[in-house]
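Hi R.,

As promised, here are both runs. First protein below:
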Amino acid sequence: MRALLVILFVAVITLPVTANLAGRDGADPHAENRQLAALPRLDGTWASLRNYPAGFSAWFDDHFGFRSTLVRWSGDVRLFGLGVSPSRAVIKGGDGFFFYADDDAVEDYANVEPMTDAALANWRMAVARAQRWLDARHIAYVFAIAPDKHVLYDEDMPETIVRVGTVSRTDQLLTAIRDLGFSVDVRPGLFAAKATERLYQRTDTHWNDRGAFVAYQAIIRAVRLRVPNVPPEWTRDDFEPVAVDAESGDLAGMMGLRRVLREENLALVPRRMRRAVVVTPRGARPTDEEGFLVTEIPGSPLPRAVIFRDSFVSQMVPFLSEHFSRAVYAWQNDFDAALVEREHPDVVIQELVGRHLYGFTPSPELVPE
């Protein structure tokens, strides 16, 4: 009996390596929301030889035989059996919602630490300098903060996460710069629309088409106050609302359950033809999360735009791009005067997600006086 147990134990622990030697890769890049380690290469240099053991260890951790299956089984047991999230980066909420727990998202939800007077002054200086610099070049400026899912659906956050303060950093910053006249608060429109439909994905950190559309409308209205020849925002009558079964989002990937969980995607299908096309990078889709993405409307005399953004703008790109002959989307939080000078836009839109007010500090010195 002991011999049989020993044989069984050895068979089990050697099975993953045997699968690798047989040519089976245990990784499933689609199932996890991260870049898996690549197999290191030996190129004859001492550096490659020295770094090979650590690189191979990282590769094996991500690719050993049956790894993705074991990760999925582990996630299934913890989520469906024990009722807890399989990942520390994901919070299991109510009504089928999952919430992001990393990148200061929990701190932002709980309002654990208000911005100091010095931090608010630095923010005001940064955006005021950007405004002055743009005004001197007759370029309009619009600043917006995208709310995280936990802002709109705080009732679905676990009761174990207690809010410390009553005022968010978003509230503080928008109040501090309101008198400058270029900020737009997209939250009132989102809260009003929330009463009639779901605006954020359940298994993803981001809003769906319908949430992105509400934010887009608020931003374009603000743009048109400064650049009147920008066309009016599209309305919901321009779209057919549809609900389709779709693959789950980034939060499901963080739990290793992208192939297990599904998403009901509440999309908006345009009833009239969209004219804007992606020209950089070639072959990309408007919603692809590219670091530098450019759309154009061929032959259009419409104004031009530069948009400093993060991932929350990705879902807005198909909407925003219809208003500009050329729109340049740069994935960065800070203002980039050199990019603006190269592009000669009529308007600059700057957006960042609310939780980044914890980890990001703007640099006023990047804007020339």
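And here is the second one, sequence first, then its structure tokens:
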Amino acid sequence: MRSAHILAIGLAICICLTASEPRADDAPALRLESVRLGSTRNVHSFGKNLLCGQPSAEDFAAAKKRGIRVVVTLRTKGEVNWDEPATVKGVGLEFHRFGFRAPDTLSDAVFDGSLKILSDARSKPVMLHCGSANRVGAVWLVHRVLNDGLSIEDARKEAATVGLRTPGYEERAIDYIRRKKAEEKSVRPGINKRFVDPKLNVTEWLGRFEIESREVFAQRAAVVRACKLKTGQHVADIGAGTGFFSRMFAQTVGTDGKVYAIDISSGFVEHIAVQARKEGVENLTPVLCTERSVKLPPASVDVAFVCDTYHHFEYPRSTLASIYRALKPGGVLVVIDFERIPGKSREFILGHVRAGKDVFRQEIEAAGFALIEEVAIPGFKENYFLRLRRIDDQ
């Protein structure tokens, strides 16, 4: 297993497959849809979330019936002549205000606060509104790039659909995105260079990954048992490589379950799609990820599995944040990686793996996970198995 990143940002890989083959996709995709909500103007849904202009007092109750749990207004105090916070709270909804009225008042604090709420919008659906959805579009642009891994260009198109029309807001949003991305430096530049090469020889890597001398392959059955998967669960195999764990997971979770085989390599993703078709595996979806995101929607999986791949995370903070969002509340993260112990580990491991288990565990826990247990896998001499759980009060 290796990396869960890619150097080019994109929604999905374009693979020339027959219609009956599994497609490489970054879905289950949600789409913006124009909907009606009482007298509220310019309303769009995205899953259960609503992006819109100013709702009336009565429309908040209607939004609650649609599943909304949180209301975020981007309007400043005094822009409406009635008590919106009291009205929202009166119908049993959570209320937040991140107000601004001009580009020079669209601060980092507005983006910081709204993005934190939107990052959990799958489990706590949000209504994000302003007067006409113009300001909403600016915040949505940033959310879709930084929280969901969308390209800036695709996010700009969505923002325009939502209602963004003020160039100054867009400029502020893009500047914020670029500064935030620049804050996290690559921890290992070029570590994934081989895998993003379009000329990658998949056959060569089959000979390296699917061989009994490799611990995780030799102990694959024990690893799958240790994951404690249940029928019907949705699983993300992050850094799926040649996909042998993905196919085993697909069999374990059954036809009511689903497996997303996620990789940075278009060659591996295509190979996984073809193999799934050949073997008749219908509950497996290949996904081409990015260098910073696993490219899954919020709360879409029960278990995230990262095998011999964490040390390939070039931007671990961003990638872990995307895994956190992709997991359902209480979801499980399994991490298998190499023990890196100076004076004991092989030279290959010391040179290739940037840090040991304690450092990786600290990084993962800082991203919102708590260790459940370290599992002893018979036959593991160079690898460790950590089971962690998403903490839901982040």
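A quick note on the second one: The chain has two domains: 32-183, 202-390. Let me know what you think.

Best,
J.
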